[in-house]
């Protein structure tokens, strides 16, 4: 049997591998990025300390527009994924024939490699050969080819639609699992009392899956905020910067222009925003689950 001191040492010994992993993989690169953000690091051999000059360049009119665009892109993408995913989970949770098949059909957007799915959408958005443009012309809704990725507004919403298509299956399956954990006795009692289907959803299903919805929305928010593949493959941030988000701008600055110091400053800003989101998330969940916060 261990005494109190021995138990403490044993506990720290068990935690040591995880602590070393966090220090090596998370903490050290984060600190190095923070230090790099205060320098003029680039391809030149010498690096000088520039203080907050990189951050001063960030908060100009151009980058302010990039920040706003990133928040708008993230907001609508996450909102659509949560709304569509919630309704999809409700439908898949219903006792209908072929339910297993319908659940299986929700998986392809999530199973297909992301790059292949994005290239597929890029082909459908093509004005000359794309399916969407062809359907609109056949229905008389367009007079000619519609090149969705050639114009700012349509390209912006096209990237959102693609991101929603990729993200909805995960949201649907996550919320479906939450719905299936609800005791059926609650629904039976409500049905016996004459409660309608909508009333049962509003009074039983929705309140009990709120914690799962908050968790899923937070996961989706972080992944969407940091989404790079979709925008880069479809538009590379164009046309004219209409789909340039913070992560795209950071990549262009650090990798495309070899301005590592300025790129690091942008990466630090992204980290700060996501830390704020995480803090608000934990505050919200602690209010919903006061017992878990103790």
What does this structure look like?
It is a single chain. This protein is mostly helical. The chain has a single domain, classed as MetI-like fold, CATH 1.10.3720.10. Helix content is 74%, strand content 0%. It has 14 helices and no strands. The longest helix has 33 residues. 27% of the residues are buried.
Explain the layout of strands and helices.
Elements: H1 4-36, H2 53-58, H3 61-93, H4 99-105, H5 108-111, H6 114-124, H7 131-138, H8 152-180, H9 184-192, H10 197-225, H11 229-234, H12 246-256, H13 260-288, H14 290-293
Question: On the 0-100 scale, what is the average pLDDT?
Answer: 87
The CATH topology corresponds to MetI-like fold
Class computed from helices, strands and strand pairing: mainly alpha
SSE arrangement, N to C: HHHHHHHHHHHHHH
Helical run tally: 14
Helical content stands at: over 70%
Q: Quick one: overall form?
A: flat
Low-confidence stretches: 290-294
N- and C-termini, Cα separation:
30 Å
- Supply Rg: 24 Å
Largest sheet, if any? Answer: none
How many extended strands?
A: 0
What share of residues are in beta strands?
A: under 5%
Oligomer: single chain
Q: What is the CATH first-level class name?
A: Mainly Alpha
| Tally of domains | 1
Superfamily (CATH H level) name:
MetI-like
CATH architecture: Orthogonal Bundle
Describe what is shown at a glance:
Helices cover about 75% and strands about 0% of the residues. It has helices at about 5-35, 55-60, 60-95, 100-105, 110, 115-125, 130-140, 150-180, 185-190, 195-225, 230-235, 245-255, 260-290, 290-294.
């Amino acid at each position: 049997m261990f005494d109190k001191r021995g138990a403490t040492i044993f506990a720290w010994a068990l935690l040591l591998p995880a602590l070393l992993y966090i220090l090596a993989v998370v903490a050290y690169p984060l600190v190095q990025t923070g230090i790099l953000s205060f320098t003029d690091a680039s391809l030149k051999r010498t690096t000088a300390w520039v203080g907050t000059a990189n951050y001063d360049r960030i908060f100009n009119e151009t980058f302010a527009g990039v920040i706003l665009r990133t928040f708008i892109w993230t907001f609508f993408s996450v909102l659509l994924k949560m709304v569509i995913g919630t309704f999809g989970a409700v439908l898949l949770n219903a006792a209908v024939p072929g339910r297993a098949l319908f659940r299986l059909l929700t998986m392809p957007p999530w199973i297909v490699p992301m790059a292949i799915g994005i290239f597929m959408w890029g082909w459908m958005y093509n004005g000359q050969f794309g399916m969407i443009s062809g359907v609109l012309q056949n229905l008389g809704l367009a007079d000619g080819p519609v090149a969705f990725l050639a114009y700012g507004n349509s390209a912006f919403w096209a990237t959102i639609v693609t991101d929603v298509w990729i993200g909805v299956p995960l949201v649907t399956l996550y919320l479906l699992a939450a719905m299936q954990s609800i005791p059926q006795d609650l629904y039976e009692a409500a049905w016996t009392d004459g409660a309608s289907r909508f009333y049962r959803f509003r009074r039983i299903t929705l309140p009990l899956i709120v914690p799962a919805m908050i968790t899923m929305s937070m996961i989706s928010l972080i992944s969407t905020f940091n989404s790079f593949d979709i925008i880069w493959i479809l538009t590379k941030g164009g046309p004219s910067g209409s789909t340039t988000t913070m992560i795209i701008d950071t990549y262009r600055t650090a990798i495309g222009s070899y301005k590592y110091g300025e790129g690091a400053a942008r990466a630090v800003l992204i980290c700060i925003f996501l830390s704020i989101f995480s803090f608000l998330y934990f505050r919200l969940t602690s209010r919903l689950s006061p017992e878990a916060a103790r």
